[in-house]
Backbone:
């Protein structure tokens, strides 16, 4: 169940990229030297207390609401989508991001026939080519946060 | 409002892994992440390797388990450069755990660092620890279908070990099928067939010596 580690790392990352109220872009906390097993408590961007903006002005308590995070998983990343959804729900429960939906895009393997060179995609890396020969599976093990959808007051 | 990010979810882990890698390379240490299921013979392999190469190659081991220090105690008979990492309920090691454990080793005393990951064919695969290579380990007793059932490990490994080949006459195991699945999933990785129990370790020891550019004989 490494999906829980991944979900917690994802939540850390989402928190760092949350825009402040007013939609000031490019504001993110510096990365800490903690691994996936040493997650700091999620920050509450614009939810519980006023924060200072980049220019020092006080911001309101208006909520920035995280609606969705979009994540891409390469086929060699050993991730189980249903377990990842459960882990995400467990990670965001009780946080200001508890309503955020996770859109997980698991890429299929790209297969190249070793005999005729045909290329196609499949979830099964051992799938044979239509010519009956095995194929070479290509794919990465990356897990990438692509984007977030947020509602920002005043936007 | 859409916020574009495009950043690895494991960015923090990867940054610490890069620090680990830098520390190890500065010392000229070759590091491998040994990944295999419970009971495939990971610790036994390391015991036999430490015993066989004592005085020839300086190995240190970080050994991950959910609980107990039993593996570290087994390995400590052959080296004082061994650290047990207990993960509690964690099913894999991460780079930060490795970094903390590395601080308890005398890196100047090592040629090779083996990170024996938690017994698991799935979860450890996606976590960079700072290793040079990932080594996937299977055994005949587990069945010939394990590579096909665990493509990410086979695909990401630079070396694959098949242990307990002395059991081939006694258990149903299609060696040709196993080899074919490994070749299909990863034509680049070397596949070495060994028996720790029978001390048939030559291919593994030769491979290890090649990684540190040194001829190592049993």
Residues:
């Amino acid at each position: 169940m490494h999906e829980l580690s991944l979900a917690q790392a994802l939540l850390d990352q989402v928190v760092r990229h949350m825009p402040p109220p007013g939609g000031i872009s490019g504001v993110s906390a510096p990365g800490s030297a903690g691994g996936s097993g040493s997650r700091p408590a999620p920050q509450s961007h614009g939810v519980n207390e006023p924060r200072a903006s980049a220019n020092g002005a006080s911001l309101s308590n208006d909520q920035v609401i995280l609606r969705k995070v979009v994540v891409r998983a390469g086929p060699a990343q050993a991730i189980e989508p249903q377990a990842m959804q459960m882990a995400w729900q467990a990670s965001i429960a009780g946080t200001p991001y508890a309503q955020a939906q996770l859109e997980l895009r698991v890429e299929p393997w790209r297969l190249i026939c070793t005999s005729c060179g045909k290329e196609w995609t499949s979830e099964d890396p051992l799938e044979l080519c239509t010519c009956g020969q095995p194929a070479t599976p290509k794919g990465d093990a990356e897990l990438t946060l692509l984007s977030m959808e947020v509602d920002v007051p005043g936007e | 409002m859409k916020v574009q990010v495009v950043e690895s979810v494991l960015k923090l882990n990867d940054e610490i892994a890069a620090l680990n890698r830098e520390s190890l390379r500065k010392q000229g240490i070759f590091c491998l992440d040994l990944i295999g299921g419970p009971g495939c013979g990971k610790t036994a392999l390391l015991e036999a390797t430490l015993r066989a190469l004592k005085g020839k190659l300086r190995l240190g081991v970080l050994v991950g388990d959910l609980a107990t220090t039993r593996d570290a105690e087994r390995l400590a008979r052959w080296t004082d450069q061994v650290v047990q990492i207990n993960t509690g309920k964690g099913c894999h090691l991460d780079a930060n755990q490795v970094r903390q454990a590395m601080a308890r080793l005398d890196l100047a005393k090592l040629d090779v660092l083996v990170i024996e990951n938690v017994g698991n064919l799935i979860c450890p695969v996606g976590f960079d620890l700072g290793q040079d290579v990932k080594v996937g380990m299977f055994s005949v007793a587990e069945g010939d279908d394990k590579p096909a059932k665990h493509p990410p490990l086979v695909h990401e490994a630079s070396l694959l070990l098949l242990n307990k080949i002395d059991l081939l006459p006694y258990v149903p195991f299609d060696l040709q099928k196993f080899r074919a699945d490994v070749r299909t999933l990863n034509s680049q990785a070397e596949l070495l067939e060994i028996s720790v129990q029978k001390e048939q370790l030559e291919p593994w020891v030769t491979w290890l010596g090649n990684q540190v550019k040194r001829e190592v004989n049993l």
Remarks:
- The helical segments of chain B are 11-26, 42-53, 70-75, 95-102, 146-149, 151-156, 175-185, 202-211.
